[in-house]
Amino acid sequence: xxxxxxxxxxxxxxxxxxxxxxxxxxxxxxxxxxxxxxxxxxxxxxxxxxxxxxxxxxxxxxxxxxxxxxxxxxxxxxxxxxxxxxxxxxxxxxxxxxxxxxxxxxxxxxxxxxxxxxxxxxxxxxxxxxxxxxxxxxxxxxxxxxxxxxxxxxxxxxxxxxxxxxxxxxxxxxxxxxxxxxxxxxxxxxxxxxxxxxxxxxxxxxxxxxxxxxxxxxxxxxxxxxxxxxxxxxxxxxxxxxxxxxxxxxxxxxxxxxxxxxxxxxxxxxxxxxxxxxxxxxxxxxxxxxxxxxxxxxxxxxxxxxxxxxxxxxxxxxxxxxxxxxxxxxxxxxxxxxxxxxxxxxxxxxxxxxxxxxxxxxxxxxxxxxxxxxxxxxxxxxxxxxxxxxxxxxxxxxxxxxxxxxxxxxxxxxxxxxxxxxxxxxxxxxxxxxxxxxxxxxxxxxxxxxxxxxxxxxxx
Amino acid sequence: xxxxxxxxxxxxxxxxxxxxxxxxxxxxxxxxxxxxxxxxxxxxxxxxxxxxxxxxxxxxxxxxxxxxxxxxxxxxxxxxxxxxxxxxxxxxxxxxxxxxxxxxxxxxxxxxxxxxxxxxxxxxxxxxxxxxxxxxxxxxxxxxxxxxxxxxxxxxxxxxxxxxxxxxxxxxxxxxxxxxxxxxxxxxxxxxxxxxxxxxxxxxxxxxxxxxxxxxxxxxxxxxxxxxxxxxxxxxxxxxxxxxxxxxxxxxxxxxxxxxxxxxxxxxxxxxxxxxxxxxxxxxxxxxxxxxxxxxxxxxxxxxxxxxxxxxxxxxxxxxxxxxxxxxxxxxxxxxxxxx
Lengths: 460, 340
Description:
The complex is a heterodimer of chains A (460) and B (340). Helices cover 49% and strands 12% of the residues of chain A. Chain A contains 18 helices and twelve strands. Chain A has helices at 10-22, 35-39, 54-64, 66-75, 90-94, 111-114, 121-127, 139-146, 165-176, 209-230, 236-262, 270-282, 287-307, 329-336, 361-370, 378-392, 408-423, 440-459, and strands spanning 7-8, 50-51, 79-84, 100-103, 155-161, 182-186, 198-200, 206-208, 317-322, 339-345, 396-401, 427-431. In chain A, the strands form four sheets. A four-stranded parallel β-sheet of chain A has the order 4-3-5-6. In chain A, α3 packs across α12 and α10 packs across α15. By secondary structure, chain B is α/β, with parallel strands linked by helices. Chain B has two domains: 3-123, Rossmann fold; 128-236 and 262-339, Rossmann fold (3-Layer(aba) Sandwich), CATH 3.40.50. In chain B, the strands form two sheets. In chain B, strands 2-1-3-4 form a four-stranded parallel β-sheet, sandwiched between helices. Chain B has a four-stranded parallel β-sheet with strand order 6-5-7-8, with helices on both faces. Mean pLDDT of chain B is 90; it is low at 173-178. The chains are: A alpha/beta (460), B alpha/beta (340).
């Protein structure tokens, strides 16, 4: 008889890891007990609950060893590119070069959560003038200054224009501290005017061809900078190959998302799905391994579906989650409240959609970059959420606000209004700080109320 | 004549005027901030949306810009709320590439098409050049007049100029005729010795915010440099008369996009160069940073200004609420006591 998957504590997950090691089960070199990361300060890991599969163990090990991969890459002579804000575009270009790795310093926004504020990044940011009124991404500035979380990149890029003011301000502060930045313009995406030449972007948004051309010219500057850094050409052939590889990641992730968000009972927990989605934006510094990690997760999901096993009971309320949570533990909470993920929009749906392979590579990348949900109107973003929520059968929408983020004040209201009017679904807005423990009762109550609402609506 | 309001100094008034419409740069009233979510939304953006929405019937259109995230999103909020037609103008943050200037120029042309849809007429090159020349002459006169005015009166004169009032009304209003020293203790020789020269830098001022100048004076200071978004810092560069006739639109791009230093630009070196130059010339002994709460761009500048200038910096975060002004006045008082 098959046993339902269950969530494990870190101790239980590490025992599973040791058993597998002792049994000689195939495991990548980086896989190992998560307790080693707790010893390094990642204390939040002690409070999370994990999926009990080998695939999830591999996912977590892969994620948490990125800090080791980047210095190792440098030691091996590879160049490191820090790509800021664009969430998914520049890494596709960077990984098209054989001796370049790219990562998002933005990812440091989760460090205060993972280390439960013990790392002091917010304190460093505060001393730089980036206080509590800023989005948690201000932790990135602290990480550049204390140099304890990632190597200083050989090239630092940042998209600006239609971006969050928090991010633009934090990045500018970094440059003032002596970290040169290659700024590139991301125009605010708008609807084409009547009679204006327009193109459809990956994911379905429409944009004027002139805006795509503008982004393409900006990406050409990046292409030249990357090639100069690598000392190797970054031609269309290399880019096309890079796009194909990125699409492999996206394709596996696409299957994983579709199954994990629609199968009943839910075959993969929300927390692991959040981490899995994050692999799409920069491949966690190892593109090939990202494919392998996601493929194993997908296989686990398929196995569980075949066996009818799920991580929550069948019939759990299907919540569509908007924005990543600053505190990872909230993903556990939603399942504790009787819900499961029924779709997501974590700010980077453009990094999930397939990049067109039938276009010149720079044109394809420009279209993808302009499809970023954050660079267009909130109404566009809401339309995408409506479409995906409808397709996936979501029963409610949670807009998870990021404290201090300049985009959250208005976009949540716009998204909520459009979702209610179009789908008639209940919508709640929650604010999730990096360590949400003091707000736990409030968050729990609000999610439970939402689940009750969903269940009541089913009776109609 | 139909009125088109706008928010940003990067919207050229003469471009709107050349289309036969009346440009009016709005200084919203803080009391209008009754729309939109309170938490997380810039009070200035809320006030702007509130003012435009409440006066919608009298307005042909509103032009907002992408110069900050809050106003970019406020444009969408305004468009959803049944106000006048809204145009969101893309002002690039980067400025060091031809592509950025080209995008700004393209956006001016797109704005032109919007103005035509509002009932305006696309200007001929001559009409545009003539309009620009007239504005340039008025702006030159305004610049000349500002030196004779106290800081508050200068700020009000710019506001009236931006609102489209005639120059005499904009600059005189009794003050210059009387002489600045007749109105302000801080402008007399004794007053100058007794008060602390300050620079005021930061974001835009709402209508009621001019009282800040009075509060500074009452606290024992005087503003010798207005570097707010509503001050002379954001006036466009004078036009080159020859180029203006050759290609007026290009000249417009150069004078606005190519010349106005501002906090949103990346990199923001032009702003800090301007501050370095003007602070030295003004003799300011301290800096008051005026920023609307939730304005990340100016918030991030406070510590950096302190580091870059070596001057004392007072960070005034303002919420637009009446009750908050007493706190502002108290903080100014404490800052002055520190500087004296």
